[in-house]
Amino acid sequence: MRIKRVETIREVGNMLHLSDKPDRFGLVSRVFHWGMAALFAVQFSSAAAHWALPRYNVLRETLWSYHIDLGLTLFLLVLLRGAWGLWNLRQRPASSSLTGQAATAGHAALYLLMAIVPALKILAAAGGTRGLGFLGLTLFPARETVVAWTQVATEWHGVMGWMLATLVMGHMVMAVGWHRLIKRDDVLRRMA
To answer: What integer best gives the mean pLDDT of the chain?
Structure first.
């Protein structure tokens, strides 16, 4: 009975073009991809402004005020997107070439960092004196004393966040530069 229901869900998803197909990503994957791309652009902008602009700068403070809520939202979206990707794994566009294998490794690194970067901040906040809130809800209350070993995660959060930004830039260069301008293949169109 359960197998039949799962197959029916997949059939409905295929009819509505929600699910991925061997030649093209479905609507849900494309919405996750482009929506998260826009949110990551804002997130990286907030980190860059926090790093580059002087203290008490209005733009710096405004962008930074969204950093935690946006980061936790992206973390939840990464988990949902990962689950959706696993659900559609057999149906996704694939390439067995060396370039395709490199792309698979690059995407795995992106997903790994998209999960690890916010997880490190969550760990640091759980052991920190500020606590952690999300959209006005308290996830971890502030502690009176710091749990020292959790604060190492704060340093790694920043370093790995910039590694993620670098990988995202490489992803964009490969998609536009290599696939669209040099090879002129349909790789970018599969996600558009």
So the answer is: 88
Cα separation, 100 vs 119, whole angstroms: 29
Q: How confident is the model at residue 111 (pLDDT cuts 50, 70, 90)?
A: very high
Kindly report each contact of residues 21-26 with a partner whose C-beta sits within 8 Å and lies 24 or more positions away, as own/partner. Answer: 21/91, 21/93, 22/91, 22/92, 22/93, 22/94, 23/93, 23/190, 24/93, 24/189, 24/190, 25/92, 25/93, 25/190, 25/191, 26/88
Region of 184 on the Ramachandran plot (φ > 0 left; ψ -120 to 50 alpha; else beta): left
Alpha helices in 53-186 (DSSP H): 58-65, 67-87, 98-126, 152-172
Examine the pLDDT at 73 and tell me if it is beyond 80.
yes
Task: Specify the pLDDT at position 16.
Answer: 67
Euclidean distance between CA atoms 58 and 28, whole angstroms: 36
Positive or negative torsion for Cα 171, 176, 180, 183: negative
pLDDT band at 7 (very low <50, low <70, confident <90, very high): low
Neighbours of 23 (CB within 10 A): 9
AA identity, residue 108: A
Cα angle 18, 171, 158; round to 5: 105
Assigned token pair, 53: 């602009």
Cβ atoms of residues 33 and 25 within 8 Å: yes
